[in-house]
Q: What sequence folds into this?
């Protein structure tokens, strides 16, 4: 089962419907004690990094997400869900930086003042390595973005795709059973559905201890 984490940030129903359309049904979960029943977990979201961390923590979901990751089960972060995988964000939430889940070493940064913020609309992704999440996805294809912050991993092995918006920024990451994408697959037409279908296939192929 693929579970979509509902921590009060973003329109999760559109993600649920996109998975259904892709042929990989997923369920929206509000109870962290159900996360353990999931072979795959999806963390979507839009909005403030600090508020998201607070919501996850108060609901007991932060611990449940970390347990899922520690078990080596497939995980997909979407938009804010990608950013939450990082060590910290410079988004001001009453302090200089806000700690994230700490799975990907690095920082979440705001686009510079010379760029239109947020970036809204279609842009290309450039594959840096082969990955099952991108099976059947042509290089330099267009996907849909809505974001003011971008991720900056300190370990280049995490980088899956980059995107040109002013300078290149990292638009998706992967290592082992963990993936994170800055764009919105549920808004990215057939390309987005293929990515969700690929994640569904990854979850279907998952076996504990593999």
A:
């Amino acid at each position: 089962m693929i579970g979509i984490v509902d921590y009060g940030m973003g329109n999760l129903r559109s993600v649920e419907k996109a998975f259904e359309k892709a042929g990989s049904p997923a369920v929206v979960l509000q109870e962290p004690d159900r996360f353990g029943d999931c072979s795959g977990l999806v963390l979507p979201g839009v909005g403030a990094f600090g508020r998201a961390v607070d919501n996850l923590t108060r609901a007991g979901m932060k611990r449940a997400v970390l347990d899922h990751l520690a078990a080596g089960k497939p995980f997909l972060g979407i938009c804010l869900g990608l950013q939450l995988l990082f060590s910290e964000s410079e988004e001001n939430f009453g302090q200089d930086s806000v700690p994230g889940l700490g799975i990907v070493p690095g920082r979440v940064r705001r686009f510079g003042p010379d760029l239109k913020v947020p970036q809204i609309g279609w842009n290309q992704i450039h594959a840096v390595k082969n990955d099952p999440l991108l099976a059947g996805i042509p290089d330099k294809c267009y996907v849909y973005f809505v974001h003011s912050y971008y991720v900056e991993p300190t370990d280049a092995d995490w980088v899956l795709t980059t995107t040109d918006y002013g300078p290149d920024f990292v638009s998706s990451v992967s290592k082992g059973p963990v993936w994170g994408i800055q764009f919105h697959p549920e808004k990215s037409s057939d390309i987005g559905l293929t990515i969700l279908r690929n994640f569904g296939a990854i979850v279907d192929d998952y076996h504990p201890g593999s």
